[in-house]
Give the backbone structure.
Amino acid sequence: MNNNTAISWTETTWNPLTGCTKISSGCKNCYAAAWARRLQAAGIKHYANGFNLTVHPDSVDEPRHWRKPTIVFVNSMSDMFHAQVPFDFIARVFDTMNACPRHIFQVLTKRSNVLLQYAPNLKWTDNIWMGVSVEDQALVHRIDDLRQVPAKVRFLSLEPLLGPMPNLNLTGIHWVIVGGESGPGFRPMDVDWARNIRNQCVKAGVTFFFKQYSGFHPKKLGDQLDGVVWHDMP
């Protein structure tokens, strides 16, 4: 368990799966790919394959041994609904989440079509939060797919936010995370894009979490947008 995650909207990460392939605009400067290369160079066992998709059966049961209730980001270094991940493996991960009601598991995917295909055959206990990444207006169809998933909490990660999204349909959505891109080659985020999304969330009664601006050293948790601190969870 990694209790030192820099991801401000979770408490720890759990990676029964590592590695991925690029699928849309938000993947261009993938932080996970960069980290995987560093961990491979450092000789970390689970990253022997670098950022090639790899399942880790030895990690599937880890949360069963964590006694303290924890908010867990699942597969921060991959995408559980990648088309090459066997359904049986996904079902095993869900079995562990189902068996650990003391933890909250946050699952995030860019592959909403696979999620939608598998969702009816998975057990959605209340401690599983399901989200989709949506980087720009061209990808809002992922939200429509998410809306059909019977998770108690459905959330959006609009990160890295690459353009305005003035007409989001937030029906059935409980939480929205917004953040700009950081690091080398970052693409700028206009703060007005974030402000507009925040206003849509307020109008719809949806919790809004502003993670960070864009840049080499973006300000993170606790930053202010129009003088109001926006970092909350459903």
Notes: Residues 178 and 210 are 5 Å apart (CA to CA). The mean pLDDT is 92. Residues 191-204 form the longest helix (14 residues). The chain is about 20% helix and 20% strand.
